[in-house]
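Lecture 7 notes: from sequence to structure.
We start with the chain below.
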Amino acid sequence: MKNLFNTIKNKVRSIAGCKKAEGYVDSGVKILIAVVIGALLLAGLYALFNTNIIPTLGNKITSLFSYSGS
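Predicted structure tokens for the same chain:
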């Protein structure tokens, strides 16, 4: 019985003592991918706002204030 407990204890220690870097590399790659996708998304939104939304909004505001009345 004591031998069984010692065997289990040794297996648990060997599993707990095994520190591989796979988890760290995997996390780093996930973070890097998230940063790149976020940067691409922000660049796309910036381009969309500067080319389509802001000029159209400026034209509509100008047309609202240039009402001549009748």
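Points to note: Residues 22-65 form the longest helix (44 residues). The CA atoms of residues 3 and 9 lie 10 Å apart.
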